[in-house]
Amino acid sequence: MDTQKEEFLKEFGQDYGYPNAPKNIDDIRASEFKRLGDVVYLDHAGATLYSELQMEAIIKDLTTNVYGNPHSQSESSLATSEVVRAARQLVLDYCNASPKDYKCVFTSGATAALKLVGEAFPWRRESSFMYTMENHNSVLGIKEYALNQGAMAFAIDIEELENYSGLPRRDASSIKVSRYSVQRRNEAPVQEAPEGNIYNLFAFPSECNFSGRKFSLDLVKIIKEDSERVLEGPPHNKGCWMVLIDAAKGCTTQPPDLASFPADFVVISFYKIFGYPTGLGALIVHTEAAKLLKKTYFSGGTVAASIPDIDFIKRREGFEESFEDGTQSFLSIASIHHGFRIIHSLTASAIARYVNH
Ligand SMILES: *Cc1c(COP(=O)(O)O)cnc(C)c1O
User: Which regions span the lipid bilayer (predicted)?
Assistant: First the structure.
């Protein structure tokens, strides 16, 4: 074992671990992942391992600060609101998303964030839901909302043409799209003389959790600006295309840069990035796209007032609050500060480099 390691280090020494981190990877493993012993774990894949240092910091935080229910009015409640506000900012920063252009809504995971988009998207009969063949089931499930509203759903395959791969930015002429069969539920209600814009949704993963394929984020602009060229012929290239990136897997090593690739919706999951907490994710939504979303269900947390015996509700005004049903998972949200601290000390780019080798 040891001679094997020596040989490995001779060949890859420069590229082993996180060269710019305060500690080398063997020391990190010995001090922050003691529980591993000699277990071999494929990290930054299905779930990232949380560091023991991270957990100590979380315990210290939760045992020294008083976090009350964010919907109450007290000092402890304000402490929670502040920690949640700062956590939203951390999430936006991680994806290089300006708070002027994007909002961060906490959800119970990437799946719940996808379901929220499906539920609240302005589907109508003329809309299309298009998705790459390589996609998580939680993305495919959005199809049910689209089909139930009479919209169309179809899968595509995207081939990135080789002769363009050297270009810094790809455009519509650098991809070839093949379309698979179109699905439509005929029994879906026909709406009368619909008014207003038609909105379509395109969904793809920044990295496929099954095949590991990474899709070029240039797709965001290609689909939004040049959909007619990409999707020539029927069905549908009418209306406005909104783009959803499923970054649940991609985020573990390469968060999307939303300043360069301004997607409308991005979903992420925190256990994939730093292991703890589970059951917490986020929907990062562009402020313009946010205005189109219509939520059906209301609940504690999303409603300012409701009257049981008449058809009246007043929803909360803040965008994030109007989409977060119930009481936010505020102790989990407080915990992500410590996860991000670990990621920032290693740096996401060093993790990506390490995982690539
Ligand atoms: C893990 C994963 C999901 C689901 O995330 P949850 O937070 O577990 O719901 C969705 N899409 C991709 C690409 C994933 O890797």
Answer: none
Residue 250: give its domain's CATH number. 3.40.640.10
| Cα–ligand 1 centroid distance for 211 (angstroms) | 14
Q: Which residues contact 29 (CB under 8 A, 6 or more apart)?
A: 36
Owning domain of residue 208: 87-294
Instruction: Give the residue, by CA position, lying nearest to ligand 1 atom 5.
Output: 110
Interval 199-208: pLDDT, tens: 999 999 999 8
Atom of ligand 1 nearest to the CA of 138: 10
Measured from CB, residues less than 6 Å from any atom of ligand 1 are 109-111, 136, 138, 205, 209, 246, 248-249, 269, 272, 281
**Averaged in consecutive runs of 10 residues, what is the pLDDT profile of the chain (357 residues)?**
80 78 88 92 89 97 95 90 97 97 97 97 94 94 95 89 59 80 72 76 93 90 86 71 97 94 98 97 97 88 86 85 90 98 90 81
What is d(CA 353, CA 17) in angstroms, rounded to the nearest whole number? 9
- Kindly state whether residue 254 falls inside one of the protein's structural domains: yes
User: Do the domain assignments include residue 194?
Assistant: yes
**Among candidate residues 129, 152, 155, the one with its CA nearest the CA of residue 142:** 129
Q: CA torsion 95→93→105→151, rounded to 10°?
A: -20
What is each CA distance from 256 to 50, 70, 90, 201, 276, in whole angstroms? 22, 30, 14, 18, 21
Number of domains forming the structure of the chain: 1
**Does residue 257 form part of some domain?**
yes
Q: Are the beta carbons of 33 and 52 closer than 8 angstroms? A: yes
Beta bridge partners of 306: 313
| Distance from the alpha carbon of residue 111 to the mean position of ligand 1, in angstroms | 6
Ligand 1: nearest atom to the Cα of 272: 1
